[in-house]
């Protein structure tokens, strides 16, 4: 099955409705699953007023493409959309979008979940948050590593 | 020339985002590069010996000791936290 892919790393905001329409633009599609990640105003009991996203230009796009390719091999997908924002963001801003379209919902749900889990552990993005105590880089979370691990074996 | 890149907290800790190694400074393997960079000082040794440090050679992650050649781009970075 040919999977139509839309992949973007960008500073600008995105429109989830537009992505939903893009994923739905195929009469063979029976289910579309989308995930939108937002910037929270708190982390580790501290107020967060800003979030800066750094990435590795060039590698970021190829790492995301590899993750999408792996998802397309595991599940039957008509379309995949991945958008990740970089630069300075603030609470309530959209930060990441993952959407998957398939004939049946199970493939779309699993692939969307898989892409998010792998994105959090394999794509070169780093978050730095602004708190009342100053700026700090966000440490990796064991729960993210565990979530990615469950897709192996 | 060989390009060596550092990202996020490592870039700040080392106060360096990019190093260019000339032909006579280029190591033959990734482990030799780590050793060479460790000798630049305590901060460098800390980053190179941190078991969580991730490495990409020519923009592909590698977990093994890799052979390096002229024109390669090697990047060191902390665990990723996107999403």
Automatic annotation (TrEMBL), chain A:
<keyword id="KW-0501">Molybdenum cofactor biosynthesis</keyword>
<comment type="similarity">
    <text>Belongs to the MoaE family.</text>
</comment>
<dbReference type="Pfam" id="PF02391">
    <property type="entry name" value="MoaE"/>
</dbReference>
<comment type="subunit">
    <text>Heterotetramer of 2 MoaD subunits and 2 MoaE subunits. Also stable as homodimer. The enzyme changes between these two forms during catalysis.</text>
</comment>
<protein>
    <recommendedName>
        <fullName>Molybdopterin synthase catalytic subunit</fullName>
        <ecNumber>2.8.1.12</ecNumber>
    </recommendedName>
</protein>
<dbReference type="InterPro" id="IPR036563">
    <property type="entry name" value="MoaE_sf"/>
</dbReference>
<feature type="region of interest" description="Disordered">
    <location>
        <begin position="131"/>
        <end position="153"/>
    </location>
</feature>
<keyword id="KW-0808">Transferase</keyword>
<dbReference type="InterPro" id="IPR003448">
    <property type="entry name" value="Mopterin_biosynth_MoaE"/>
</dbReference>
<dbReference type="GO" id="GO:0030366">
    <property type="term" value="F:molybdopterin synthase activity"/>
</dbReference>
<dbReference type="GO" id="GO:0006777">
    <property type="term" value="P:Mo-molybdopterin cofactor biosynthetic process"/>
</dbReference>
<comment type="pathway">
    <text>Cofactor biosynthesis; molybdopterin biosynthesis.</text>
</comment>
UniProtKB/TrEMBL annotation, chain B:
<dbReference type="Pfam" id="PF02597">
    <property type="entry name" value="ThiS"/>
</dbReference>
<dbReference type="InterPro" id="IPR044672">
    <property type="entry name" value="MOCS2A"/>
</dbReference>
<dbReference type="GO" id="GO:1990133">
    <property type="term" value="C:molybdopterin adenylyltransferase complex"/>
</dbReference>
<dbReference type="GO" id="GO:0000166">
    <property type="term" value="F:nucleotide binding"/>
</dbReference>
<dbReference type="InterPro" id="IPR012675">
    <property type="entry name" value="Beta-grasp_dom_sf"/>
</dbReference>
<keyword id="KW-0547">Nucleotide-binding</keyword>
<comment type="pathway">
    <text>Cofactor biosynthesis; molybdopterin biosynthesis.</text>
</comment>
<comment type="similarity">
    <text>Belongs to the MoaD family.</text>
</comment>
<protein>
    <recommendedName>
        <fullName>Molybdopterin synthase sulfur carrier subunit</fullName>
    </recommendedName>
</protein>
<dbReference type="InterPro" id="IPR003749">
    <property type="entry name" value="ThiS/MoaD-like"/>
</dbReference>
<dbReference type="GO" id="GO:0006777">
    <property type="term" value="P:Mo-molybdopterin cofactor biosynthetic process"/>
</dbReference>
<dbReference type="InterPro" id="IPR016155">
    <property type="entry name" value="Mopterin_synth/thiamin_S_b"/>
</dbReference>
<keyword id="KW-0501">Molybdenum cofactor biosynthesis</keyword>
